[in-house]
Amino acid sequence: MIPSFPEVGPRFDALLRANGIEPFAALTSDAASLAVPHATTCVAIRSTEGVVIAGDRRATSGNLISHREMDKVMQADTYSGVAIAGAAGTAMEMVKLFQLQIEHYEKVEGQSLSLEGKANQLSLFVRNNLPAAMQGLMVVPIFAGFEPGSASSRIWAYDATGGRYEEKDFVATGSGMLHASTTIRLGWKSNLTLDAAIELSCRALWQAAEADSATGGYDPVRGIFPSVATIDARGFVFVEQPKLSGLFTNIAEEVRNV
Predict the structure, then answer these.
(1) Which of 25, 133, 210, 230 could disulfide-link 138, Cβ–Cβ 3.0 to 4.6 Å?
(2) At a CB cut-off of 8 Å and minimum separation 6, what does 24 contact?
């Protein structure tokens, strides 16, 4: 027989607590105890020719490095891409569904979804993930693309509720966003070329890796470089490893000589 606790009133959860049972313990548990891999720092920078989108390669589970070569920059379609930060598995599944949604629209309608429409679709996916985000499985992507008709590039950042915010010049997300965005802010110019934007994104990720333990930097021993892609009139194109190797070698040499 359950003891009587008249002071708890009609609330069943209060009755459980009076008997030493926490009814919402599973919901309030530390999400880090799940050891879910998290992606970390990503950036996007507009230039005069298009946009550069980049991300480091490290995924962490608490204080452990779970993956060293995770790809956080992914092509959405011919003229757009997504960079992910947050719960890695959830983020990758979200991007796959987003890619499928874009492809489905094109097949049904016979034309490509506008860049604004793609940004709206991604916003819906982020918003639908809110219940998981409330339990620690948050995803905060960056979406960037190029519009061939107007020859212009655009960037959007998102919050956990699905709110989307178009950024005029650049944006950073993830655990190293403060250090990355500060580096970009100091180096950004209105007449930035695509090559200069690539170099600036590499410097931003270098500084983020220097100050943030969750952000992976250039790893010459394993030959691991951040993922960097350009989106311009040619479409979505990954920057090749030899070029990245040269850029990071130069940055390392500068740091060594300071």
Answers:
(1) 133
(2) 13
Indicate left, alpha or beta for 136 from its phi (over 0: left) and psi (-120 to 50: alpha). Answer: left
CA atoms within 13 A on the CB side of 12: 2
The three-class DSSP label of residue 49 is coil
Segment 137-189, tens digit of pLDDT: 899 999 999 999 899 999 999 999 999 999 999 999 999 999 999 999 999 99
Q: Write down all domains in the chain, each with its CATH number in brackets.
A: 34-257 (3.60.20.10)
Residues 6 or more apart whose CB falls under 8 angstroms from that of 234 comprise none
Q: What residues are annotated to the active site?
A: 40
The b/e string for 175-189 (b: 16+ C-beta within 10 A; e otherwise) is bbbebbbebbeebbe
Asked whether 61 and 196 are in contact (CB, 8 A), the reply is no
- The candidate with the shortest Cα–Cα distance to 141, out of 191, 97, 86, is 86
